[in-house]
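Quick illustration for those who missed Monday's session on complexes.
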Amino acid sequence: MRTFKCHHCQPSTRLFYDNTQCMTCLSEVGWCPVCQNVTALTPDNEGGYRCGNPACQAALVKCFNNSHHGVCNRLQTPGDHVRYGGLCDCCRHNTVIPDLSIEGHRERWAALEAAKRRLFYTLDVMGLPHPAPQDESPLPLTFAFMADALPDKGLWRAAGSGEKVYTGHASGHITINLKEADDVERERLRIDFNEPQRTLIGHFRHEIGHYYWDLLVKGQEEEASRQVFGNHDEPTYAEALERYYESGPTPNWWNDHVSAYATMHPWEDFAETFSLYEDIVSVLDTATNMGVAMGEQDGGIDKMIVAFQEVGVAINELNREMGLVDILPVVITPTIRDKLAYVHDLVERSRVN
Ligand SMILES: [Zn+2]
Ligand SMILES: [Zn+2]
Ligand SMILES: [Zn+2]
Ligand SMILES: [Zn+2]
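Prediction with zinc ion bound:
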């Protein structure tokens, strides 16, 4: 991730990816898709804006979820505004949004959208396609953000249908339970499931891993995937799931899997490995943009892993100074390195920009 400059005041004022206002000059700011910056906005007195970046000055319209719900900080060109029904390049992927008449839902939805925007930023760094339903694609990417309808220890109110919502992916459609955006609830689940890195962005990175298996591997290079992650047809996913919840993860799973859950089935192994790969790409991207030295990079996975571990150790120590959890509990063994190398090669071959 980069930081950005406010062009309405001192160029030294930093703007951050999620900002909607410059804290120095109080100008409205937002994401301009034309110059790919968070910039100050100049109202055009007709309900639209101009990008404040002097090198861009594109005519822009706020995303509907920005202007009406305050859960987005993006703008779009007037042409795309019409074409995509008022929704920006992130929000147009939504098929279900939370019931906003329930207290607390808007704030949790905003946290989910912020994590989704960060996910898309990393996917763009990786150069991967993420087609919206309005784009003509055989496998559009869609999201549903939903709350459990059942009351959960009094924290959650019924939303109507009497169903429990499972976070997961099926055929390009990612569902995320709204309670993952509640810090207290997520912390409880993090401890219950012994998942040290259960985070909101982590859920998106895992589920999008399933999407890219379907988009890039399914029916195209399943044999190569079998060689690295094992046979995804035998046992079936349902059998593997039952076995995992009966007998738990494979003993000594850390020798060849990035997490206990990755031992459940080759698809979960791929998604967990893909998620770690996104962690590596995003941490290195941020470290580079923040001027953190991390050695020469040659575009290969091995130097990426070394740099990630070096940056990770430094961040772990900084976090320990502040009493926060480690960001880097994963030990990358030779087998895990080979899985990451497969994902790296797959991503490099699939780049569309
Ligand atoms: Zn400013
Ligand atoms: Zn611009
Ligand atoms: Zn939006
Ligand atoms: Zn999964």
